[in-house]
Design a protein that fits this description.
Keywords: ATP-binding, Kinase, Membrane, Nucleotide-binding, Phosphoprotein, Transferase, Transmembrane, Transmembrane helix, Two-component regulatory system. This is histidine kinase. It is found in: Membrane. With 441 residues, this protein is an alpha+beta fold. It contains 9 helices and 13 strands. The chain folds into 3 domains: 153 residues, Beta-Lactamase (2-Layer Sandwich), CATH 3.30.450; 82 residues, Helix Hairpins (Orthogonal Bundle); 145 residues, Histidine kinase-like ATPase, C-terminal domain (Heat Shock Protein 90, 2-Layer Sandwich). A hairpin with a 3-residue loop joins strand 4 and strand 5. Helix 4 runs antiparallel to helix 5, helix 5 runs parallel beside helix 9 and helix 7 packs antiparallel against helix 9. The structure holds adenosine-5'-triphosphate (ATP) and magnesium ion (MG). The site of magnesium ion has 5 residues, from helix 7.
Length: 441
């Protein structure tokens, strides 16, 4: 999947490009219109100049003694000549020229009207029944320079406008999306088990329905999960008393029955009832594990819990449990001590039940806060290993069980922010099973 582009980036780049494009279009149009107007105005003054000069020139030429002599008009004060002119007689002989004129600019024979060459704008007209001709020339460089300067003046703001609008839009979008970013952060920060409504104080109006829908969905999910948990917990709890009563009756029956098939049958019923009572106990543990609230507000030392659980097991499996504790006096964690005890009980019970009976079970707590339960025994295949934390899932074990122990352990680990990993063979060994729990700090 391609990386999603942020709204801020999309709007920033899109709007800036849009503004720049509109500015360019406006600039082109302005240059076009202004150039057209300048051309018209300058052409008109070129015509006017030509006609004024020609009428003065005709009078001057008539007043000369020899009327077909070329005269160059002297300049009154030194200056750069924008407009140069050439007055010719009927036979095309030059009679009067401006002081700075370049004759190569003009054609061989006089031509009437406005026109352009590669370098000049020219205008020609005549007087006294086509006996005197004037042509005026204006270099195009001035008009070109004016266009260039206008273009530069119009494009200059763009250099400021682009970064400025990019920064402005960036800031504006970031400011407007503040509520959305806060909402995203609120969603990111909560853990998977938190189904409470998400706080969305400054969300834009368009997104409020989305937040409402998310909250409704969470509420529905919460109700369903709570119903499921309370059903599990209640039914397990309700089963306890009748099961204990039935077990007591069966035990009495077995004792009172004469040796033989009746006693055997009573034995089998008692074993089934015991199994059923274990199952209801596990279901209650699972309901607790999944109910949330597996963290305590003030972190506590976990070592007393570990020692207590191990001591509990030692009473029945005396020599098989080996406990090693870190040099540190205490390992502090925010995991709920009751939940930790349930988790550890399940791991140790598994190690004793599914591991090799003639080999010890190691329970170790490291100074980094990692709790390990290691036992010897056949290797559990990797494809089984990944499924073991599912409910009612078991691998190839001859020991009886319901397949809930590791599901309970996993639910407690997830709910408390701990990490449970199962490894087989155990680290540094060729066989066995290792369950490691990284405690939340
Ligand atoms: N320490 C272990 N050594 C070897 N196999 C194990 C160990 N722990 C778990 N397993 C395997 O994982 C399976 C699932 O364990 P889990 O604790 O979930 O169920 P269970 O022990 O069979 O039943 P329950 O715990 O509900 O009484 C076990 O049946 C067993 O095959
Ligand atoms: Mg188990």
């Amino acid at each position: 999947m391609s990386q999603p582009v942020s709204l801020q980036r999309r709007l920033g780049i899109g709007l800036t490009l849009g503004v720049a494009a509109l500015w360019l279009v406006a600039t082109t149009l302005t240059v076009f219109i202004v150039q057209h107007t300048i051309d018209r105005t300058l052409d008109s003054s070129l015509e006017e100049t030509a006609q004024r000069i020609l009428s003065l020139a005709v009078v001057e030429i008539f007043n000369r003694e020899s009327s077909d002599l070329l005269q160059q008009v002297a300049s009154l004060r030194p200056h750069e000549e924008y407009i140069t002119y050439l007055v010719r007689g009927a036979n095309g002989i030059p009679l009067l020229i401006s002081h700075d004129v370049d004759l190569s600019v003009f054609p061989e024979t006089p031509q009437m009207g406005l026109r352009s060459t590669a370098t000049h704008r020219l205008y020609g007209t005549s007087a006294v029944s086509d006996t005197f001709f004037i042509e005026v020339a204006e270099p195009l460089t001035y008009r070109h320079r004016a266009t260039r300067e206008m273009l530069a003046m119009l494009l200059l703001p763009l250099a400021v406008l682009v970064p400025l609008s990019l920064a402005g839009i960036w800031w504006l979008v970031r400011h407007s999306l503040g509520g959305l970013l806060a909402y995203r952060q609120a969603l990111e920060e909560r853990d998977a088990g938190d189904l409470s409504p998400v706080e969305a104080p400054r969300l834009p109006a368009e997104l409020v329905p989305v937040a409402v829908a998310v909250d409704q969905l969470l509420a529905r999910l919460r109700r369903v999960l709570e119903a499921e948990r309370s059903f599990t917990a209640n039914s397990a709890h309700e089963l306890r008393t009748p099961l204990a009563a039935a077990l007591a009756q069966v035990q009495r029956l077995r004792r009172e029955a004469p040796p033989g098939p009746l006693q055997d049958r009573a034995w089998r019923i008692e074993a089934s009832l015991r199994e059923l009572s274990r199952l209801s106990e596990k279901l209650m543990q699972l309901a607790k594990a999944e109910s949330g609230g597996l963290l305590v507000e003030t972190p506590q030392d976990v070592l007393p819990v570990v020692i207590h659980v191990v001591d509990d097991f030692r009473r029945s499996y005396d020599t098989r449990l080996e406990l090693s504790l870190p040099k540190e006096k205490q390992i502090v964690s925010s995991i709920d001590p009751d939940a930790l005890a349930i988790l550890l009980r399940n791991l140790i019970e598994n190690a004793l039940k599914h591991g090799r009976e003639d080999r010890p079970v190691e329970v170790a707590v490291s100074s980094e806060g990692v709790l390990r339960v290691i036992n010897a025994g056949p290797v559990v295949p990797a494809e089984d290993l990944v499924r073991l934390t599912d409910r009612f899932t078991r691998a190839n074990s001859r020991a009886d069980g319901s397949g809930l122990g590791l599901a309970i352990a996993q639910a407690i680990a997830t709910g408390s922010g701990a990490t449970l990993t199962l490894i087989s063979p155990a680290t540094g060994r060729g066989d066995g099973f290792e369950a490691s729990l990284w405690l939340p700090p």
